[in-house]
């Protein structure tokens, strides 16, 4: 298990920190490459750290950072820092709140701190605009624009990010990060390379995705809709026309609207459907019309090197090696 955790951290940090953050004078995220040496410096025990409730975990914040625990995180600029980003992650059934505290930056000089509801990597956003409940412009909350009017921002899913630019040495700010239970999670990036999950949409017109940033073997054990319970298990062409279906998607990015479809399911069933998917990102995506209670259960594990080699040699089996 320790080996698998390290594999997860290497892949996650490589994906997270080899990404785009800022470019030029924009407050939105563009392209910026991070070296592998910088990437590995972020490995630590923080991902699974448990902190007693009576204590608040505190540590300095780095210009490029990953935070998976609650606490207070302070950034103090030792020199101009023009391309910084922090990625926050919680458990699948949690959302994240970020509070601005003790902010000492110069907005008039071009400094900014912006919270984004989701993640952005290489110009792609998770959740995609099709799957997020808010329009894109509402997912960005800039401290310099909102000031004291909005000092706390809460994510819609288990990931969020902050990106910032500071011109003057000595400028600083503190972020207080908390996690909150989400009774009906929708849109999740998995923290683990293996596990099981049940996604439920309770008669709501929305799309939900579970993203696994590994090549995986996945078993869909149950899929239920209110209107097809008596039909046999099978995939149907034209599932999108039904308004309620599950997609398996694969690719190298995080925007589900840009991933390639592997299969669609729009017939309820109980019993395993097993697939091995050699993509960097595998997504289980449920589309709901809101007319029914939709439910899908699945388990997954990361593919070992021999399985990946088999898939790569048999390129008919998996399209991810052909794109």
TrEMBL record:
GO molecular function: corticotropin-releasing hormone binding
Name of the protein: Corticotropin-releasing factor-binding protein
Keywords from the named record: Disulfide bond, Glycoprotein, Secreted, Signal
Domain annotation Corticotropin-releasing factor binding protein N-terminal: ranges: 55-180
Signal peptide stretch: 1-26
Any GO BP: negative regulation of corticotropin secretion
Disulfide bonds: 63-84, 107-144, 186-208, 239-266, 279-320
Family statement: Belongs to the CRF-binding protein family.
Subcellular location: Secreted
GO cellular component: extracellular space
UniProt domain Corticotropin-releasing factor binding protein C-terminal: residue ranges: 188-309
Function: Binds CRF and inactivates it. May prevent inappropriate pituitary-adrenal stimulation in pregnancy.
Pfam families (UniProt xref): CRF-BP_C (PF23541), CRF-BP_N (PF05428)
């Amino acid at each position: 298990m320790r080996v698998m955790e390290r594999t997860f951290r290497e892949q996650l940090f490589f994906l997270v920190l080899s990404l785009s953050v800022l470019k030029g004078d924009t407050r939105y995220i563009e392209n910026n490459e991070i070296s592998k040496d910088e990437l590995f410096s972020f490995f630590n025990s923080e991902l699974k750290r448990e902190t007693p409730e009576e204590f608040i975990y505190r540590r300095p914040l780095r210009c490029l950072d990953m935070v998976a625990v609650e606490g207070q995180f302070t950034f103090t600029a030792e020199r101009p820092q023009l391309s910084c980003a922090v990625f926050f992650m919680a458990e699948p059934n949690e959302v994240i709140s970020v509070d601005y505290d003790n902010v000492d930056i110069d907005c008039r000089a071009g400094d900014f701190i912006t919270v984004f509801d989701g993640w952005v990597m290489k110009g792609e956003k998770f959740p995609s605009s099709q799957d997020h409940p808010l329009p894109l412009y509402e997912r960005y909350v800039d401290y310099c624009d909102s000031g004291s009017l909005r000092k706390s921002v809460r994510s819609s899913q288990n990931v969020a990010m902050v990106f910032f630019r500071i011109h003057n040495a000595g400028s600083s700010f503190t972020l207080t990060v908390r996690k909150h239970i989400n009774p009906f999670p929708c849109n999740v990036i998995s923290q683990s390379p293996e596990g099981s999950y049940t996604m439920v949409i309770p008669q709501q017109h929305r799309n939900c995705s579970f993203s696994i940033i590994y090549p995986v073997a996945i078993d869909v054990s149950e899929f239920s809709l209110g209107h097809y319970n008596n039909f046999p298990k099978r995939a149907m062409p034209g599932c999108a026309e039904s308004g309620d279906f599950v997609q398996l998607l694969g690719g190298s990015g995080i925007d589900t609207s840009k991933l390639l479809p592997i299969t669609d399911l729009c017939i309820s069933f109980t019993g395993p459907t097993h697939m091995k998917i050699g993509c960097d990102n595998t997504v289980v995506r449920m589309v709901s019309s809101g007319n029914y209670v939709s439910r899908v259960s699945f388990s997954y594990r990361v593919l070992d090197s021999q399985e990946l080699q088999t898939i790569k040699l048999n390129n008919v089996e998996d399209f991810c090696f052909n794109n």
